[in-house]
Specification:
- By secondary structure, the chain is mainly α.
- The chain has one domain.
- Strands 1-2 form a two-stranded antiparallel ribbon.
- A hairpin with a 2-residue loop joins strand 1 and strand 2.
- The longest helix is centred in the first third of the chain and has 28 residues.
């Protein structure tokens, strides 16, 4: 099936809404009130976020479609994306104090890297910045889920945009922020790790850790697994800041706990998610992840730390309802 230009535009716009919409705005990382108090700054950083997040997600999705890769490859490339953004563009992996790292700037710090923070944020970007938006788009456009959307010129365009965003943000942070400037070995190390993840993603077969579930009563369980993703992710922040716990749990154990918990959830998804006809199950998993995210965001609204975020929550609910209707429609084409 040939994909028309209008469909391609809608596809890209939908992905632009999902990311940076989910990881930056729905999560409360960016305060929507800035749109009214400092509109120029808000719009400028919205463009930066679109250039970074949306371009990264489009390129990863295109990589998976062109080379016939599965969800685990997308997840690994999402981790690589997180490393590039936070280590090379924004430098938070090397930050000792201040926002956003807080106590995690010292807990688990070794050879100048905040390893607990780096691990947690790479996972966050892999899930909420890349995999979840691509999952939502695969539900909205099921007949194009395994097909490339961009031509060679489109891929080149988004690669240029993404590269420019990384370079410009790196320059801005270097000259306007108190965050430490990474050394050349820091840049090299971060780049090599990101490239290794991309290479692994390239060589993994599509059916690596493929879905093995059967169509049945797994929908509700998958919703609850999705519901647990954000709370489990947040454990990496809650464990070390608790004075009664931090003296008993080493950073290595903190990371191991999260690897085990994420591994268990991943295994649950693999064995419950049907390999075919799984739009409703995918929706349940995504809805669960977004529910816990919206719950935390609602608390930000109620305590005044992120006013107007209720607007984004209502928009997200409306879009989820629309996606639920789509998920219950039969596909035009099976892939």
């Amino acid at each position: 099936m040939k994909i028309g230009f209008t469909t391609k535009v809608k596809f890209v716009l939908a992905l632009a809404i999902a990311t940076p919409g989910i990881p930056e705005y729905l999560s409360g990382s960016w305060n929507l009130s800035l749109l009214f108090s400092h509109p120029v700054n808000f719009l400028a950083f919205l463009l930066f976020n679109l250039g970074l997040y949306t371009s990264g997600a489009i390129l990863i999705r295109e990589f998976a479609a062109r080379f016939n890769k599965g969800w685990f490859s997308i997840f690994l490339m999402g981790c690589a994306y997180g490393i590039v953004e936070e280590a090379i563009a924004l430098h938070t992996f090397f930050q000792v104090t201040g926002s956003p790292v807080g106590f995690l700037g010292t807990y688990g710090r070794f050879i100048g890297v905040d390893w607990v923070w780096a691990f947690g944020l790479a996972i966050f970007h892999a899930v909420f910045s890349i995999t979840l938006p691509i999952l939502l788009i695969s539900i909205a456009y099921p007949d194009y889920s395994n097909k490339k959307i961009l031509g060679k010129s489109g891929v080149a365009f988004f690669m240029v945009i993404y590269g420019l965003m990384v370079i410009v943000l790196n320059f801005i942070i270097n000259h306007t922020s108190a965050r430490p400037v990474p050394t050349y070995p820091d840049y090299l190390f971060s780049t090599v790790i990101a490239l290794i993840l991309v290479v692994i993603a390239y060589f993994l077969p599509r059916d690596f850790l493929h879905f093995r579930g059967r169509t049945g009563n797994s929908t509700l369980i998958l919703y609850f697994i999705g519901l647990l993703i954000y709370p489990v992710y947040n454990l990496f922040a809650f464990i070390p800041v608790n004075a009664a716990i931090v003296t008993r749990i080493s950073p290595i154990l903190d990371i191991l706990i999260h690897l085990i918990l994420f591994g268990l959830m991943g295994a649950g998804i693999i064995y419950l998610m049907p390999s075919k006809d799984n739009k409703i199950q995918k929706f349940a998993l995504a809805a669960g992840a977004l529910t816990s995210l919206m719950y935390v965001s609602l608390k930000y609204e109620l305590n005044g730390t992120a006013p107007f975020i209720i607007i984004l929550i209502l928009i997200a609910i409306a879009l989820l309802y629309r996606l639920w209707i789509i998920a219950n429609k039969p596909d035009l084409e099976r892939t």
